[in-house]
Amino acid sequence: MSKRQGDKLRAGLIGLGAMGRNHARVLSGLDGVDLVGIVDPVGDPSGQLRAPVLPDLGELLARDIDYAVVACPTALHEQIGLELAAHGVSALIEKPLAQSVEAATRIVEAFESRGLVAGVGHIERYNPALQNLRTRLEAGELGEVYQVVTRRQGPFPHRIADVGVVMDLATHDIDLTSWVTGQEYVSVSARTVSRSGRLHEDMVAVIGTLTAGTMVNHLVNWLSPLKERSTVITGERGCFVADTLTADLTFYANGAIGTEWEALRAFRGVAEGDMIRYAIPKREPLLVEHERFRDAVEGKESDIVTLRQGLRTVEVAGTLLRSASDGSTVTVGVPSASAAEVAATR
User: Which residue ranges form the domains of the chain, and what is each CATH number?
Assistant: First the structure.
């Protein structure tokens, strides 16, 4: 609950990179919140930010903040997160939660032991296309889900230096796949390459299995001039295609119309049916993410990505890297989340 009931929450931001500046923009106009300080050792060369830019976390904590948004490099998440928790400050931490399972676990335990509200910025959960898709899957519109295929590719973002494409990009696909289907990963097999001369991998191909037997495929890279964000879910009644760049959702239904075209008659799979592109409201995902987290800090019931869900994603990502290192199919461990939390995500 807010320390100042009836007043605006006092928020801070840590990190002014590309994502940090987007957080600053949203926080600056967020109802019920005052952005009282931003931490970045480089400062604000643009001079366009309304909130003061501070050199270190200590100065931000001295401003008596209710919560902080952590948008610094992943390698610093543990250090920053533990200090925020020690001072009783809630936190929204950008994904991935940390660069290792061990570091992520320490962050989870620090916030949980103090009863603080904390979440992870898996922004794809707030994409209108995926939110609408999840609702339709829960309503059984697709029937049994057979396969989830995601493609996430584009040019290398030079701002990323501390993790590879698995932790930075594939964690989006891991989280959204479990969230949309309501299933956990059971096993994965992954292959990675590094073609850009960096220490970390810049391309990964994944085959996996979920708890209900659903097949999963992820293709993720930083090596393509084509920017693509696609999620295709195939089931017994057809397939959904979600484009998270445009927030469009399309349904391709199975059909029962015969064809006189001999070449197609030889194919014994399903026939093409109706195609529907849904008209859905399209609010900015980052704004929705901030609204949900603000509500949680205020003590209201709110759908945020919990730290334990963020930890689970790091666990699966670590399993992908392990599989890629030895070329094996690896069983994914039991989720760290409690049974009650897993049930709450369904």
Answer: 9-122+287-304 (3.40.50.720), 125-283+311-344 (3.30.360.10)
